[in-house]
Amino acid sequence: MEITTRNLFRLLRAGVLGSYETVEPMSAWKWGYVYHLAMVHGLEVETWKGITLLKGQFNVRLTDSLSAQWENSARHARPAAPTPIPSRVVKKLRRMEEGAPLTAVTSFSVLRAMVTLSQSLLTADRWVRQLLSLAAMLSADGLRLDGEQLEEWVKELHMERMAQLEGVLLTRLVGISEERLPLRLTLGEREREQMLEEIVGTIAATNHQWQFSQGGNIFVHNSSSSAMYWQARHSVRYLKYHPTASIASFVRSFVQSLTNIEE
After folding, report:
1. CA of 21: how far to CAs of 35, 153, 198, in Å?
2. What does the pLDDT average to over 165-194?
3. Which of 59, 100, 130, 186 lies at a 20 to 30 A Cα distance from 258?
4. For the packed helices 87-99 and 105-123, what is the interaxial angle rounded to 10 degrees?
């Protein structure tokens, strides 16, 4: 994992969960890149809180201009737009919620957060924010989950493999203990490391990154081919975690690209 990614998550754990983290030394350019990642994922507020908490450390050394820019971005940050969930999944969730016992209300809220994170990963839509949102829920004092009910719902949504991936990201990136995970991790150490490196290696490649860099939709006239190839590779990456949803995600992106080209 790159040092910029490691320090990004140190700032996030400090800013969101209040944990005191030891930041690794970085050059001014790398600090600028961490700020860039925070902007791309809409995490200016959370990372600035982390910087404020850890600013007494020798290695938290930002230039005056970057510090002022980061603080200003955090002050003027807008609430993140909700991650869209496909209508067929929304219908399934509604059906599950209607049939859920009253004692499983909290468990269903966690399931919805898991589905939202899954969709963010599949569509490369600022998934780090959704990961933090799920982590905050799981870190709440007195949280009680119905593990059997959650497992049943996850199987119905064909999310078993994706739930394992989410568990790896929660434990390795956010520091959530395995005891607090909604479902038990059944993966070996080597497989967990492979999952982590594969997903974290794409942290800068988000839909918003394309917008951030090009000033338009992900599929624009002069880059529709490269964007489509990128989306295809991204969908293939998640086939082993959530096959049907990965294919559906790519088809929706393909249709959207054709619409943009026609326009």
Report:
1. 17, 36, 24
2. 89
3. 130
4. 170
